[in-house]
Amino acid sequence: MAKQKIVKLIVAALVFAGGDIWVYTSLLESFRSYYETNSLKEMTLFARTAPENPLYYGDWLVSLAAEVEGARGMILNLDENWNFSPAASDPAAQFIWDVYRNSEEFRRGLESVYYLLPYKVSKGIRTSELAGLGIKDLPDASSYGVYLLPIPDASGYDITGAVLIAVPEGPAGQFERLLSVFAVLAWVIFVTLFAVAILSRDPITGYAVIFLFGTAIAFIAYPLFEAVRLTFMEGGVFSLNIWKKTLSPQYLAPLWGSIKLGIITASVSTVIGFAFAFLTERTGIPGKKLIGALGTMPVISPPFSLTLSIILLFGNNGLITHQLLGINKFSVYGLGGLVLVQTIGMFPIAFMTLSSVLKSIDSTVEDAALDLQASRGRTFLTITLPLSLPGLLSAWLLVFTNSLADFANPLLLAGSYRVLSVEAYIEFTGRSNLGGGAALSLLLLMPTLTAFFTQRYWVNKKSVVTVTGKPSARLAELATKPVRLGLAAFVGACLVFILGLYGTILAGCFVKNWGIDYSFTLANIGEALSTGRQAIGNTVVLASAATPVAGIMAMMAALIVVRRTFAGKRILEVLLMTPFAVPGTLLGISYILAFNKPPLLIVGTAAIIVINYIIRELPVGLETGAASLRQIDPSIEEAAQDLGADMSKVFTSVVLPLIRPSFLTSMSYTFVRSMTAVSAVIFIISARWSHLTVQIYNFSENLRFGLASVLSTALIIIVLAAFGFLQVAVRDKGLTEKSIIR
């Protein structure tokens, strides 16, 4: 049976290869015929403009290079013996003449020119040969096409001379190479899909793995490879100078600054996020939906808006510190201010991740411990907390990597405290040193990957399965009244502070000039909405397109990573998690480098922005989904498969309902981050597809805080409306709903 399948695969591959080659050669011949015909007509017409007066030969050669980009030319005169001889020439054209003038093909070409027939030399000349002669300003093309063209007299029936024109075959060569790549790629895709279909026991899983690998290679590995390659190039040649400078003591201090900031921010944010999640998911306190909505507000605003609120309230001329309290020596700039603003902006990541984890815990184990007279505190410390550890580590890792990649907050609030993301951003934008900025951004991967592999090593050694059948619809109340009140007071204080920051943004909508003129005005609203109308529409459309795709891909990737074993599983997981560790500036520059040329020429389109959204936020959904799946016994899925359900049926009818909180979190987070993205998007937006956060950033940079406040408020309203829509669209059928019992 296996031999028959292999034979079928070989036969199918050969048959497809034959058809593929036939299509390729047909398209190639048609293109070459069309291209050569049109090029020959164009060059013939241009040859007729050659001047009769030798004094103007030089000017004509210059105009040739200007009209036909990269072209080189030579004017040939006829002597008394009807032989052609150079009258004026470009150095490159002179070299071509010297090399090929005695060849048989050139003699045939000049003979055709005698009879007023243009001729294209079948064999061009390689650009590298001209470069070896020291000829400069050569175009980015592998070879030149050579044309021999007649210069007719006024009557058009006789010849007065000839022109040799060498034209770079860049577009033609690129198209032929692109056609070759597509032909090979089509064959590889067909063979791979057919092999999976006839050889795999679970074709759906095989297709999913291939799709994820293809996505990861095309939109993660390839762009980053282009960025890495750039770090080893200087002046167009291989060099290690960029890395020598990057690894010097000059940048070790900001590297440690980034790591220190990330560790503190991640630790504090995870603690606060767990407190919020535990209060809303594991206690019977009223107002949970309100707490959840207010607790996620910091993640639905541009990353620099809260920083501006902090500066305006607590800065050197802050409303609270300076004007109300009269404190002049207090400074919010530096590590303390960065930890404060990053914690406020990033603890919702931990909150959203841990909420789904705590909600998914089956409380029967906790009930058993309570029935055996264990105290609530002991039950929490020995059962609930250990079961939550994978989620805690995932939340910590996500906040840590997000902190390392953040540059907007440090750019405004770091002061003298140096972090590597800002250094990389300055190299990119301030010094136009793309290679140096890419190297500094890549250096940030070292601590991120270290944290990632440490977390994976620990999680893989532990078992946290609690759902082995239909999950319990009840959760035991583990928090005593003093604990509930303490958590409520702590969460309430955090929410009051957050509301104060957003109150500053809201107040800014109606203030003429914050810090100078606090008089009331409504002019900001009309001007901001009029200016940002296109940006609002574009941002909503792009984010809406990315959200469902990213959510489904994240859950599919989580299921495959957690439940399936296949070759290259660890590589795929690392690739899919890489975008969250990569600074947004690096990802934006990588996409510019990779997709501004064939085979994927998508820079300036909406596609590159949507793809960037999906790839950038995919790790969050993957981590959240994986943390939930590790709590579900695989035997539930195996039972469904034993009853005849395939991979897609198991995913939609068993897995997805059980991990609904993670799925909802993934889509919500993708939409939010797409709406509020800055670092990567600022490099890849175009005039056709503007972005709301870039508009807000431009207003903030120009100190037009009133207009920035209006657009920030509009963004928050849009995201909150989307949250409500997702809650209705992705309905909970009761599998994850819990009731708290005391």
Can you describe what's shown?
This protein is an alpha+beta fold. The chain is 68% helix and 8% strand.
Secondary structure blueprint with pairings:
Elements: H1 2-47, H2 57-67, E1 72-78, E2 84-89, H3 91-100, H4 104-114, E3 119-120, E4 125-126, H5 127-132, E5 143-152, E6 159-168, H6 170-199, H7 203-231, E7 233-234, E8 237-238, H8 241-246, H9 249-281, H10 288-295, H11 305-314, H12 319-324, H13 335-360, H14 364-371, H15 376-405, H16 408-413, H17 420-430, H18 434-443, H19 445-460, E9 474-476, H20 481-508, E10 511-513, E11 517-520, H21 523-531, H22 533-563, H23 569-581, H24 584-594, E12 596-597, E13 600-601, H25 606-629, H26 635-642, H27 647-658, H28 660-676, H29 681-684, H30 692-701, H31 705-729, E14 739-741
Parallel strand pairs: 9-14
Antiparallel strand pairs: 1-2, 1-6, 3-5, 4-5, 5-6, 7-8, 10-11, 12-13
Helix pairs in contact: 1-6, 6-7, 7-18, 7-22, 7-23, 7-24, 9-10, 9-13, 9-15, 9-20, 11-20, 13-15, 13-25, 13-28, 14-15, 15-19, 15-25, 17-18, 18-24, 20-31, 21-31, 22-25, 22-28, 23-25, 25-28, 26-27, 28-31, 30-31
List keywords for this structure.
742 residues, alpha+beta, Beta-Lactamase, MetI-like fold, 3 domains, 31 helices, globular
